[in-house]
Specification:
With 161 residues, this protein is mostly helical. It has one domain: Four Helix Bundle (Hemerythrin (Met), subunit A), CATH 1.20.120. It is built from five helices and two strands, in the order H-H-H-H-E-E-H. It has a two-stranded antiparallel sheet. Helix 3 packs antiparallel against helix 5. The longest helix is centred in the C-terminal third of the chain and has 25 residues. It is globular and about 45 Å long.
């Protein structure tokens, strides 16, 4: 089980570094670029991804009450450049949340990975392994969306190693 934990933590760190390397070089204008009416900018994607990750950690893995979006209290229907946090605050939130995720993984015993939990915002039962896998997949999906928004601006995202 130690190898599984090591793999999960390495993947979470790799993904975190890719997201930060990709976003850190962008200007505020590039972070706020929306390709079409009703679309989302990179800052909204980063905030939404982090809010969801925090919610899964707190409500699913730790079994505590949690209201999504507690940190910045953003109304997603009216989210725009005027009411989004600055990138440095989003980056700090993302790093803290990802570190909390890693620390939660480190504290799990081998048998904990087989425990069954109630999924976030659903009555479906899933294992801890499935919850962690879902969060890693979602994070990779958000990275792909961020990279696509950069390409739609005519820029080339940083190379991923």
């Amino acid at each position: 089980m130690k190898k599984l934990k090591e793999y999960i933590i390495a993947e979470l760190n790799r993904n975190k570094n890719h997201i930060l390397d990709t976003c850190d070089v962008l200007t505020e204008e590039e972070l706020l670029f929306i390709p079409a009416e009703g679309g989302q900018c990179i800052k909204v994607l980063l905030l939404h991804m982090t809010d969801l990750e925090e919610a899964w950690i707190v409500s699913v893995l730790l079994g505590q009450e949690h209201e999504i979006g507690e940190r910045f209290k953003i109304d997603w229907e009216t989210a725009n450049a005027n009411n989004l946090p600055i990138y440095d605050d989003l980056k700090k939130y993302f790093i803290e949340t990802r570190q909390n995720f890693i620390e939660t993984i480190e504290e799990l015993a081998a048998y904990d990975f087989e425990d069954t939990l109630k999924a976030f915002q659903s009555e479906k039962k899933i294992s801890v392994k499935e919850a962690i896998s879902h969060m890693i997949e979602s994070s990779s999906m958000y990275l792909g969306k961020i990279r696509m928004l950069i390409e739609l601006q005519g820029k080339t995202p940083v190379e991923l190693i």
